[in-house]
Design brief:
By secondary structure, the protein is of the alpha/beta class. It is built from nine helices and ten strands. Helix content is 35%, strand content 19%. The strands form two sheets. It has an eight-stranded mixed sheet, sandwiched between helices. A two-stranded antiparallel sheet has the order 5-6. It binds thiamine diphosphate, iron/sulfur cluster and magnesium ion (MG). Thiamine diphosphate binds next to helix 4 and strand 5.
Length: 245
């Protein structure tokens, strides 16, 4: 714990603990796991996990993991991305990995800020937010990450709040076991630049939807948590291997 550089109270600690539990469970079932992370405070998680890990350039977790999965289809591959990393610098990679149903899991640490660079607004920050980069208020509308992933074709889409570690570990486990592109948005308070631990009083859980459209409506409210949608569909890797050999 001494070597961890996150600020005391950061939501990333809860994500780390929940992922340790979930990955342990998956490995006990006989699977091997490799992880990757993007650039930002969230990116340090790959240093803190005792797993094969690759810290890649900003926003490039999905293509990196796609290559890994294509080369070794038996491996379970998991990427950690930030709201800036995944929805600003790397938005196009996330969309195309979801569209292809690449068999990877993306865990998005959504703290609503560029944390490592000290609190500028990102694609998920609300309109009007004052920050270092928006002293007069953010003029942009935010992206709803789960809606974007559903619209892009992701076959497993979930949201959790970092406070709820047990539920988070269960959702991580289900996401890793899902065959196809799985996406978990974690509402992750940044105590230094966007502290929203109080959201715990407002978070509510919903049951899985039957259709993408229903799931889109369910996750519109950012306080809604749960597995919104899951379906089985041929994966990108299966299609590539089938057409190549
Ligand atoms: C291509 C590129 N653009 C900008 C940066 C500078 N940069 C480093 S970390 C960071 C913020 C990352 O924010 P986020 O992905 O939300 O992660 P967090 O720190 O909040 O976990 C930025 C903009 C960079 N390293 N590379
Ligand atoms: S700046 Fe925010 S996200 Fe980064 S370690 Fe500190 S609390 Fe966590
Ligand atoms: Mg961030």
């Amino acid at each position: 714990m001494d070597r961890i550089s996150w600020c005391p109270g950061c939501g990333n600690f809860a994500i780390l603990r929940a992922f340790e539990k979930a990955s342990q469970r998956v490995m006990e079932e006989g699977y091997d796991i490799a992880v990757s992370s993007g650039i930002g405070c969230h990116g340090k998680i790959s240093d803190y996990l005792n797993l094969p890990s690759f810290h890649v350039t900003h926003g490039r977790v999905p293509p990196f993991l796609t290559g890994l999965k294509l080369a070794n289809p038996k491996l379970i591959v998991v990427g950690f991305s930030g709201d800036g990393d995944g929805l600003n610098e790397g938005a196009e990679h996330l969309v195309h990995a979801a569209r292809r149903n690449t068999d990877i899991t993306i865990i998005l640490h959504n703290n609503g800020v560029f944390g490592l660079t000290t609190g500028q607004v990102t694609a998920t920050s609300p309109k009007g937010r004052k920050s270092k980069s928006t002293p007069y208020g953010n003029p942009e509308y935010p992206i709803n990450a789960c809606q974007l992933m559903l619209a892009s074709g992701a076959t497993f889409v979930a949201r959790v709040f970092a406070r709820e570690q047990k539920k988070m570990a269960e959702v991580f486990y289900r996401a890793m076991k899902h065959r196809g592109f799985s996406f978990v948005e974690v509402l992750q308070p940044c105590v230094s630049f966007n502290n929203f631990w109080d959201l715990r009083k407002e978070v509510f859980w919903v049951e899985k939807a039957e259709s993408v459209y229903e799931a889109m409506r369910m996750c519109e409210d950012i306080r809604a948590c749960g597995v919104f949608y899951a379906e089985e569909k041929e994966t990108y890797e299966d299609a590539v291997w089938k057409s190549t050999f």
